[in-house]
Design brief:
Blueprint (H helix, E strand, L loop, with lengths): L1 E6 L3 H13 L2 E6 L2 H10 L6 E5 L7 H11 L4 E6 L4 H9 L4 E4 L4 H22 L6 E4 L2 E4 L4 E4 L2 E3 L3 H11 L6 E2 H8 L9 H14 L9 E4 L3 E4 L3
Parallel strand pairs: 1-2, 1-3, 3-4, 4-5
Antiparallel strand pairs: 6-7, 7-8, 8-9, 10-12, 11-12
Helix pairs in contact: 2-3, 6-8
């Protein structure tokens, strides 16, 4: 069963989300605030595929809950719900570990499509982690372990989300090759993704902060102006 945790303080919106997700085959656990979200997440030992978190909630807000859940799990999918269309809300959510965001108001079809797309990525990641033979990709000081789906630099494991890992795996498989933003979006988020292509740029920025010694002067993950990005094999 596909399990999803929904945290939303507005009853009408929460009921709307729960009904549509259940109709689409998800087992839904819903809570009205961030404190309850963390309690339920811990009580279930993190046994959720996706967490859907409203940003503006009483007590712990969605940003705080996102950071706490990401500390507990690098594999669970996280989608932020925002009543604001401001760019900064979206960027903040992605920078602290969310995989995607949905801006209110949204249609049932958009919500389910975004949840389905993230669930597919989470499922593929889990299947690859169960691959019978471990395999590694190496690039300079980096080692990407395709069995554990982890990345290390000079022997130290980096804390990456599954989206970040998938982006980096795509680069490692295409070293010294300029990859367009749309190509990255299609590869990682899937073709037909509803959201903004800028989600690629935010994740690249987050990756640089974790990979590069000097993120403002990257050595490995370079920008190809007007097109996309390139991983430099060293």
């Amino acid at each position: 069963m596909k399990r999803i945790l929904v945290a939303e303080d507005e009853d009408v919106i929460r009921d709307f989300v729960v009904i549509n997700l259940r109709r689409s085959g998800y087992e839904v656990v819903d809570v009205p605030n961030g404190d309850e979200a963390l309690r339920v997440f811990d009580e279930n030992n993190g046994n959720f595929d996706i967490c859907l978190l409203d940003i503006m909630m009483p007590g712990k807000d969605g940003f705080t809950v996102c950071k706490e859940i990401r500390k507990r799990s690098s594999t669970v999918g996280i989608i932020m719900l925002s009543a604001k269309s401001q760019e900064m809300d979206k960027v903040n959510g992605l920078m602290i570990g969310a995989d995607d965001y949905v801006t209110k108001p949204f249609s049932p079809s958009e919500l389910v499509a975004r949840v389905d797309a993230l669930h597919r990525r989470v499922t593929v990641a889990a299947e690859k982690a169960q691959a019978p033979a471990p395999s590694e990709l190496k690039s300079g000081p980096f080692v990407l372990n395709m069995k554990s789906r982890t990345v290390s630099k000079n022997g130290r494991v980096l804390e990456l989300t599954q989206v970040e890992y998938q982006i980096l795996e795509y680069f490692f498989n295409n070293p010294n090759t300029a990859l367009g933003r749309q190509d990255i979006l299609n590869k990682v988020w899937g073709e037909g993704y509803f959201g903004d292509i800028k989600i690629v740029d935010v994740n690249i920025r987050r990756l640089r902060m974790k990979l590069e010694d000097a993120p403002s002067k990257p050595e490995f993950l370079l920008t190809v102006w007007g097109f996309g990005y390139k991983w430099v094999q060293k």
